[in-house]
Amino acid sequence: MKKLGVDTLKKFLRWWSAASEVFASFATKEEIDRVQRAFARVLFRLPDKSFRRFISFKPYFLCSPRADAAIWRFRPKVQPGQRYADVRIIYLPPDFNEYSDERLDFAIAHEVAHTVLDHNPLQYKTHRSEAESDVDALLKEWGFTQPKKAWRGERD
Ligand SMILES: [Zn+2]
């Protein structure tokens, strides 16, 4: 892990408190702490440039029984006559708490890579495999490797 500056940590905590607000309204304290630690492990492994880019997008994150791990973007008009806001959401799989730490980190890193690459899920229909190979290449560059163990019920 690279040396962690106070500035990086502050940025992470500021982002986290906004990003986790909705999740924190329904998740248990254990789940919230676990996801925060996993995001910290992932984001602090990123090169500075990618870290700053991720934080600048201010993505929220959620999990929902109806969504698998994914990113989502939408552009609501905040007020009449105003510019559109660019809202980004990272979804974790609903059963994420059964994942091992390694699997959870990889799932988060995958969605973080989509975010850093500024992917738009609305374009996935036509560019999905291209987007996924770009994510794989970036994960490799960041030093993440796909966990090999079975992926359900593997948490100790
Ligand atoms: Zn993907």
Structural class, by secondary structure, is: mainly alpha
**Shape label:** globular
- Mean pLDDT, to the nearest integer, reads 88
Bound ligand species = zinc ion
- Encode the helix/strand succession as letters: HHHHEEEHH
Count all strands and give the number. Answer: 3
Strand order of the largest sheet: 1-3-2
Number of domains: 1
What is the CA-CA span between the terminal residues?
Answer: 24 Å
The stretches of 5 or more residues where confidence is low (pLDDT under 50) are none
Strand residue content: 5-15%
So how many helices? 6
| Rg, nearest Å | 16 Å
List its traits.
single chain; about 160 residues; mainly alpha; three-stranded mixed β-sheet; globular; binds zinc ion
Map the helices and strands.
Layout: H1 6-19, H2 21-24, H3 29-43, H4 48-56, E1 60-63, E2 70-74, E3 87-92, H5 101-116, H6 124-142
Parallel strand pairs: 1-3
Antiparallel strand pairs: 2-3
Helix pairs in contact: 3-5, 5-6
Bound molecules: zinc ion (ZN).
Zinc ion (ZN) binds next to helix 5 and helix 6.
Would you write up a description of this structure?
By secondary structure, this protein is mainly α. The chain has one domain. It is built from six helices and three strands, in the order H-H-H-H-E-E-E-H-H. The protein has a three-stranded mixed β-sheet. Helix 3 packs across helix 5 and helix 5 packs across helix 6. It is globular, with a radius of gyration of 16 Å. The model has no long low-confidence stretch (mean pLDDT 88).
